[in-house]
Design goal:
Elements lengths: L25 E2 L5 E2 L6 E2 L3 E5 L8 H14 L2 E5 L5 H15 L3 H4 L11 E4 L2 E3 L4 E3 L2 E8 L1 H4 L10 H27 L3 H8 L3 E9 L10 E2 L1 E4 L5 E6 L5 E5 L2 E4 L7 E5 L1 H6 L9 E3 L7 E9 L26 H11 L16
Parallel strand pairs: 4-5, 8-11
Antiparallel strand pairs: 1-2, 3-4, 5-16, 6-9, 7-8, 9-10, 10-18, 12-17, 13-16, 13-18, 14-15, 14-17
């Protein structure tokens, strides 16, 4: 994927109404919450997937659980992902150092151009809707590391070392997770290899400052949006703020210690022939403490075919989306400037 064509979620757009329906949980006892598929639920709301279990005799069962998590929830917690607690704490520390640098130092990386190889995006006021979006986000390429690391900041001094180590570790977790997701869908190896070939990694360090209490009702960290990715893997700090639109209401995602929050992106919705859905989510701010998160986005190369592969199409599941490349999706998305998965509608077989 060429650096000049990087796609990131557009947080400048108003979120639409609507939600995807999910399966309500059932509770087997007072401590362990599970749903009807036997999925462990964190805080009774979001499934927990054990990445390490994909390497053992329970791989087949874990893939089934992963399929259920993507099919019925769209968000899940990923534990035993192989990224050490030391590294998780390390990248959070580096991110905090960066966003606490003097403004003039941080602003050296500011750019309004979303195709920049590295750029700092800053908060803004939407006068039309009379709301604030209060977030700073350092966005950059992470894979292949040797190609992009020299574009990263050198202040803090440990930035390149620690962020580079995290990007490599996140990519190491991402590949087997993606393979398992595609296997769960029923994709053949040829289709999986086509998608994974040449795909890159885009990342962001996100900072949500404390908001004055008088402005809370008019301030968002991020407005409702879906991600134009295959998957997004998010490392949040201990401060709540992420919310997912479920059954018409935004449900808070409580951070799970040392776990990643993973969500289905628009590209996977297309690849899955709408079996998996990309859900609206947002970030709220508070008046007591700042919040940090680290996102690793899985994007395919520009020439990757994003329509559902032939093995997912049959009489019971006719094609909903036609074949299209990721570059076509990218171009269409920025022309439409929609914040959610309706940007896929123009690729439907019977699009208006």
């Amino acid at each position: 994927m060429s650096p000049s064509k990087t796609l990131v979620a557009d947080d400048h757009l108003e979120s639409p109404a609507g939600a995807n329906k999910t399966i309500p949980p059932t509770y087997t006892d007072s401590k362990v919450h599970t749903d009807r598929y036997g999925l462990e639920l964190w805080e009774g709301s979001f499934p927990v997937i054990d990445l390490e279990a994909l390497r053992g005799p329970s791989r087949s069962d874990t893939i089934k659980k992963l399929d259920h998590a993507c099919r019925h929830y769209g968000f899940f917690m990923l534990k035993n992902h192989g990224i050490s607690e030391t590294l998780l704490n390390g990248i959070m520390g580096v991110a905090r150092e960066f966003f606490h640098l003097p403004e003039e130092e941080r602003m050296k990386l500011y750019s309004p151009d979303p195709t920049s190889i590295i750029r700092l995006a800053i908060g803004f006021k939407d006068d039309k809707q009379d709301v604030f979006v209060s977030r700073e986000s350092l966005k950059f390429h992470g894979h292949p590391l040797e190609k992009f690391v020299n574009t990263w900041p050198t202040n803090p001094s440990s930035f390149r070392e620690i962020v580079g180590e995290y990007c490599v570790a996140a990519k190491r977790a991402e590949i087997p997770l993606l393979e398992a997701v595609f296997e769960g869908l029923g994709m053949e190896r040829e289709s999986i290899d086509q998608i994974l070939d040449k795909h890159g990694q885009y990342a962001s360090l996100n900072y949500y400052p404390v908001c004055e209490e008088s402005n809370l009702e008019r301030t968002f960290g991020l407005r409702g949006h879906t991600d134009p990715t295959i998957l997004t893997m998010l490392l949040p700090d201990e401060v709540p703020g992420l919310e997912v639109l479920l059954n018409g209401e935004y449900l808070p995602v409580k951070p799970m210690p040392n776990a990643l929050v993973v969500n289905v992106g628009d590209a996977l919705q297309g690849l899955s022939n709408l079996q998996y859905k990309s859900l609206l989510h947002r970030v709220i701010v508070n008046s007591e403490t700042e919040r940090l998160s680290i996102a690793s986005y899985c994007y395919p190369s520009n020439d990757t075919h994003m329509g559902p592969p032939k093995e997912l199409i049959n009489d019971d599941h006719p094609a909903i989306y036609r074949d299209f490349t990721y570059e076509e999706f990218y171009t269409t998305m920025w022309k439409q400037r929609r914040p959610d998965a309706t940007r896929l509608d123009s690729f439907k077989v019977f699009a208006a």
